[in-house]
């Protein structure tokens, strides 16, 4: 096979046409794609992306092999998928737009509490979960992170009280108006209780999971919140995050899991600017 010595020259010609703005443009697109990947990893959307990659790869292979009928079918399928993408990726697109509106698409933002306050809130939540587990009292505690949950909190009863174990235990007393539904925690305050959460549409989940667990998974599919679930049947403590349910937490592991949702992170200059813009200051 003859060696093509024109390749290096073509590469040099291609590189010579790249301007600094082109590199900047590529970096921006790469950052956006990476952020989008972070948002969909460990969710059902990543499976859809893999399916799209398979279709694109098959289209390229069939075109290279001159399989005209298969190429035509795959191209038509791709056209329909472009129309279906906004529907398939509705939760992820909503999450991206909310992050963009809050100035958090390319930054992580900051939590509401300093380390001492965060440890106090974590201790109160862990203490509550332990006592509820011991008495097998069902509970849903939603820990808000970057994405605001105002649309969820308005479905319940507005409270806005300082977090304490005694307060939370009173919220989840059986046969009271606040027991059924979820409690929304923002920073060191309980902002709402008896809130309605969206149920997951994942039919592959175990039939052992009840409505509380399915509601926790459903909300975690649509936002970045941590949802602590106490089973009414077994007293098992679970945490839903990113569409996944992690089970059988004890005091130590639960504290380690929820602590990052409260501890304040140091912002750089750009992050501080976006935070001020987001808060309207």
Structural features, described:
The protein has eleven helices and seven strands. The radius of gyration is 24 Å and the shape is elongated. It is α+β, with helices and mostly antiparallel strands and 281 residues long. The longest helix is centred in the first third of the chain and has 21 residues, at 20-40. It folds into two domains: 12-101, no CATH class; 115-261, DNA integrity scanning protein, DisA, N-terminal domain (YojJ-like (1). Strands 2-4-3-1-5-6-7 form a seven-stranded mixed sheet, sandwiched between helices. Helices cover 52% and strands 13% of the residues.
Q: What is the top-level CATH class of the largest domain? A: Alpha Beta
Query: In total, how many domains does the architecture comprise?
Result: 2
Could you give the count of β-strands? 7
Please, what is the average pLDDT?
80
């Amino acid at each position: 096979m003859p060696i093509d010595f024109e390749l290096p020259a073509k590469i040099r010609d291609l590189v010579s046409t790249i301007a600094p703005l082109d590199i900047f443009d590529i970096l921006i697109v790469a950052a956006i794609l990476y952020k989008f990947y972070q948002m969909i990893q460990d969710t059902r959307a990543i499976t859809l992306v893999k399916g799209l990659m398979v279709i694109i790869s098959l289209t390229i292979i069939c075109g290279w092999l001159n399989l005209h009928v298969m190429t035509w079918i795959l191209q038509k399928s791709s056209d329909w998928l472009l129309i279906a993408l906004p529907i398939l990726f509705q939760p992820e697109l909503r999450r991206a737009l909310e992050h963009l509106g809050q100035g958090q698409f390319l930054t992580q933002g900051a939590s509401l509490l300093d380390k001492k306050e965060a440890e106090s809130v974590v201790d109160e939540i862990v203490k509550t979960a332990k006592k509820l587990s011991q008495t097998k009292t069902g509970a849903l505690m939603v820990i808000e992170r970057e994405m605001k949950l105002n649309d969820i909190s308005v479905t319940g009863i507005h409270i806005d009280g300082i977090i304490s174990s005694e307060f939370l235990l009173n919220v989840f007393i059986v046969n009271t108006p606040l027991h059924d539904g979820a409690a929304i925690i923002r920073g060191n305050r309980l902002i709402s209780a008896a809130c309605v959460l969206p149920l997951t549409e994942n039919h592959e989940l175990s039939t052992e999971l009840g409505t509380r667990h399915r509601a926790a998974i459903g909300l975690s599919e649509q936002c970045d919140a941590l949802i602590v679930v106490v089973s009414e049947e077994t007293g098992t403590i679970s945490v839903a995050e990113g569409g996944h349910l992690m089970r059988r937490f004890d005091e130590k592991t639960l504290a380690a899991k929820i602590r990052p949702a409260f501890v304040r992170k140091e912002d750089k200059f750009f992050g501080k600017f976006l935070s001020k813009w987001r808060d309207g200051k």
